[in-house]
Design a protein that fits this description.
The structure holds 2 protein chains of 2 kinds.
Chain A: H1 2-22, H2 26-49, H3 64-78, H4 86-89, H5 94-98, H6 104-134, H7 142-169, H8 175-187, H9 202-207, H10 209-222, H11 227-262
Helix pairs in contact in A: 1-6, 2-3, 2-6, 3-6, 3-10, 7-10, 7-11, 10-11
Chain B: E1 4-13, H1 23-31, E2 37-47, E3 52-56, H2 63-70, E4 78-83, E5 86-87, H3 92-96, E6 99-102, H4 119-129, H5 134-147, H6 163-177, E7 181-185, H7 193-210, E8 214-219, H8 222-228, E9 231-236, E10 239-244, H9 246-252, E11 253-254, E12 257-264, H10 268-275, E13 280-286, E14 292-297, H11 300-314, E15 316-323, H12 327-336, E16 340-341
Parallel strand pairs in B: 3-8, 3-9, 6-7, 7-8
Antiparallel strand pairs in B: 1-2, 1-4, 4-5, 9-10, 11-16, 12-14, 12-15, 13-14
Helix pairs in contact in B: 4-5, 4-6, 5-6, 6-7, 10-11
The chains are: A mainly alpha, B alpha/beta.
């Protein structure tokens, strides 16, 4: 119990450190806040101007505006764990953190606390602006919570896998996160329904986890579907997330051990 | 019980890649790591409580690998390293609570300090990472800043500090955490003489005498090891060649005598004749500004007259000194394998 409290304090110390760092450069803080405002305005205007000849109803959203804005919300939320482990492991300060008595899991959580808090704040600002200025429909129920919880777990699992890959290959490149981010934007249905993709790209959309996450999120947030209504589709997301978490963790452990055997931690 | 104990510790690394691509490389990757590059070989060491122990060796001797195994950053190929009776790999978190390592040689590579934060905020953060009780943090930081002579730098961003001051802050981490074990990997490398002196005083007076830490100092600086350490292990090519206190080591090995002669008009004839004197094991000519000939020889009583006679007859001697073997000479002779035990 004492160890747990100490490690929670470590997370608090990371939060304070990163907050101080964030506000240590006034120009950067102002630019970040400006960036959120511009993003919200531009995305809202864009979504109002663009119309799409597609079957939006199957996603539970009444209009393309809702379809588009919920896509953005999912992008922000599901993107939270991206680079949360792999980014730290690839960083040069990692060995210095590893030699402290703080537990590895709490170090990863600690390093990410501020950035997650900041991105969440960004997400909430976006949601609030979308509801207030662009009339976005936003339902909140258990379905929404469960969809986000397991989507984030799946992304953590994929990032653990990416971390294992990076530390194993000693490469600064992160092809797994790169592919996920790039393809999420293009084929998973963030901006338009995947059915509108050319037929040769559609299979990639079918295997991309974010395609299913987006569909479930739109059904629950936009369409107001409850947990029981989306349960049959949700089960596969839950099972995939849990299996992938163990696979990702195993890859992380393997890569981490290989790096310690080769003496290459911090060599990326 | 020894605080730090290495038992038959060996570490082999993968050899450097011959290329990134190519079938040979791919086949090697498939076969798995080929650990053939020696870093440590059957190292057995015991470091007692409160000792300031030096791990002395040239570059590539295995010093940093030893420090990394202590911190579980590297897993040994064979053997174990015990710290307070705990295995350095399996019990890393328990050990880390009582140990601080200053990888000062890598300060700009493994920098755990945040560049855009003040010295004080950085030290506060580090104290929390080592679970220092909240009520003691400020008191220890004040003490550290005073001892480190960093009063006027307390509110400065870390990135504004010079290399010497950064190293002082890094060492200050040990004063804030107050662990029972301190590992110092090349703590004065790249530092000027005044900065080195400050670091030496802090290690000796504050960490060892005042706080009673057991310290492991990995260095290739003989003067530092001789000045600071209670005992020294000379490490070369991964093997421990000798372990004792610096004075004993000097007496323990019969080192070649050194005759240093400033010469004028030394030609090939002199060197041909010196070559014929069997007692001379090595001759070294340093050319600038006045040529200095350094002769390493044994059996002083038997050959000294013959050597001086040869020098007088074949060159003009400007200055001549018979030098006492230093700790550096011992180190060089051990590393070069030219030493001979006197008993």
């Amino acid at each position: 119990m004492k160890g747990l409290i100490e490690n929670i304090k470590v997370m608090g110390a990371f939060l304070k450190l990163n907050r101080d760092l964030f506000f240590s450069w006034r120009a950067e803080s102002v630019m970040q806040i400006l960036q959120i405002s511009i993003n919200v305005t531009l995305l809202g205007i864009f979504a109002r101007l663009v119309t799409l000849d597609a079957n939006i109803e199957q996603y539970g959203t009444a209009t393309f505006l809702d379809f588009f804005l919920i896509g953005q919300v999912v992008n922000i939320m599901v993107g939270l764990p991206s680079g949360s482990v792999s980014g730290i492991l690839a960083g040069r300060s990692f060995p210095g953190l590893f030699v402290t008595p703080s537990r590895l899991g709490f170090i990863f959580l600690g390093v990410n606390t501020w950035i997650v808090a900041w991105r969440l704040l960004t997400g909430f600002v976006f949601i609030a602006a979308a509801i207030l200025f662009f009339d976005m429909t936003f339902h909140v129920n258990m379905g929404v919570v469960v969809v986000f919880a397991f989507s984030i777990l799946l992304m953590i699992a994929l990032d653990l896998f990416a971390a294992g890959f990076i530390v194993f290959t000693k490469s600064r490149q992160d092809p797994i996160n790169w592919f996920l981010r790039m393809s999420a934007t293009l084929v998973s249905g963030t901006y338009f329904p995947p059915e509108n993709l050319p037929s040769w790209l559609y299979p990639i959309s079918r295997i991309h986890p974010q395609t299913y996450i987006l569909k479930l999120a739109r059904l629950t947030i936009g369409g107001g579907k409850t947990l029981s209504e989306v349960w049959p589709s949700l089960v596969s997301l839950i099972i995939t997330s849990i299996i992938m978490f163990f696979v990702g963790y195993a890859m992380f452990q393997y890569g981490f051990r290989r790096a310690r055997l080769a003496g290459t931690l911090g060599h990326m | 019980m020894a605080v730090i104990e290495a038992v038959n510790l060996s570490k082999y690394y993968e050899p450097p890649r011959e290329g990134v691509f190519g079938w040979n490389q791919i086949l090697k990757d498939i076969r798995g790591p080929q650990q053939t590059l020696l870093a440590l070989k059957n190292v057995d060491l015991k470091i007692e409580r409160g000792e300031l122990f030096g791990l002395l060796g040239p570059n590539g001797a295995g010093k940093t690998t030893f420090c990394k195994i202590m911190n579980a950053l590297v897993i040994p190929t064979e053997g174990h390293l015990y710290i307070n009776g705990l295995d350095s790999i399996k019990d890393h978190h328990t050990i880390a609570a009582h140990m601080v390592t200053v990888f000062a040689g890598d300060i700009d590579i493994w920098n755990i300090f945040t560049r855009r934060l003040t010295v004080e905020k950085n030290l506060t953060f580090m104290a929390k990472l080592w679970h220092v009780p909240d009520e003691k943090i400020q008191e220890r930081i004040d003490y550290t800043i005073e001892v480190m002579q960093l009063e006027d730098k307390r509110k400065d961003w870390y990135q504004k500090l010079s290399a010497g001051l950064k190293q002082r802050v890094y060492l200050g981490l040990a004063l804030v955490v107050q662990p029972s074990i301190v590992v110092l990997d090349e703590p004065t490398i790249h530092l000027d003489v005044p900065s080195k002196r400050v670091i030496h005083t802090i290690i000796q007076e504050e960490l060892c005498k005042k706080l009673g830490c057991t310290a492991l100092l990995a260095t290739h600086n003989m003067e530092e090891a001789e000045k600071l350490c209670d005992r020294v292990a000379i490490l070369n090519k991964g093997e421990v060649k000798v372990v004792d206190n610096p004075e004993n080591i000097k007496g323990f090995f019969k080192v070649l005598d050194v005759l240093e002669v400033k010469l004028q008009g030394a030609g090939p004839v002199l060197f041909e004749k010196l070559d014929k004197i069997p007692g001379i094991k090595k001759a070294q000519l340093i050319k600038a500004p006045v040529p200095v000939l350094r002769l390493y020889f044994d059996e002083k009583e038997k050959y000294i007259a013959e050597i001086i006679d040869c020098l007088i007859k074949n060159a003009k001697i400007v200055d001549l000194r018979l030098k006492e073997p230093t700790f550096e000479d011992v180190f060089v002779s051990v590393v070069e394998g030219t030493h001979e035990r006197s008993h």
